[in-house]
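Supplementary Methods, section 5.1.

A reviewer requested that the exact input to the structure prediction be made available. We therefore reproduce it here, unchanged from the version used in the analyses.
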Amino acid sequence: LPAGPAAGGAGGHGGDAKLIGVGGNGGNGAAGGAGTPVGAGGPGGAGGAGGILLGTSGDPGLPG
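The structure derived from this sequence is encoded token-by-token as follows.
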């Protein structure tokens, strides 16, 4: 049997907020390659950190 397709790449990390603000959301993982079986999707990127003084962290990305 031929080898399965490569897994999708991971999503990028969300940007960090500086002093005040919400961290950026993580990028979504890339979809897996076509084939049988279908390649696994990449993991979502981590959300960025919230601001030091005030803020919340970003949401992680969705898997591919």
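The chain is about 0% helix and 0% strand. These observations are discussed further in the main text.
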